[in-house]
Design brief:
2 domains; two-stranded antiparallel ribbon; single chain; 10% strand; Arc Repressor Mutant, subunit A
Length: 119
């Protein structure tokens, strides 16, 4: 999966929330001062070239929809993060969350159960 730029991720977040939409629909979600419509349209085209969107003609414009699910993109980015910054160690990732008290002992037991079920 091709990594997205920060701007592309920002636009994709709006598209995932809206589902089918036009560049103008996304533009209207931005606070003032809004970016230029042309800039949003360019991001849509880039996202389509990278395989994240598809479109159909509707009237004088196009309606787009995501063909990559947000969850799938997140998994890909997390996997890349773990490979790059944690030497591929999921244990390091879980240890970080445990140390930062983002995981309870019940959460850890649930994770262990999932691992045992998958073996």
């Amino acid at each position: 999966m091709i990594k997205l730029s920060q701007k592309e991720e920002e636009v994709m977040e709006h598209i995932w929330q809206l589902g089918e939409c036009t560049p103008r629909d996304v533009l209207l979600r931005y606070p003032e001062p809004q970016p230029l419509l042309n800039g949003i349209q360019n991001v849509f085209q880039s996202l389509e070239r990278k395989g994240y969107l598809d479109h159909r003609r509707e009237g004088r414009g196009y309606v787009y929809w995501p063909i990559v699910e947000k969850k799938d993109y997140g998994r890909s980015r997390l996997s890349s993060f773990v490979d790059r910054y944690l030497d591929g160690s999921i244990k390091e990732l879980v240890s970080f969350f445990a140390r930062e008290q983002k995981l309870t002992s019940d959460d850890l037991r649930d994770i262990i159960s999932l691992i045992e079920e998958s073996e």
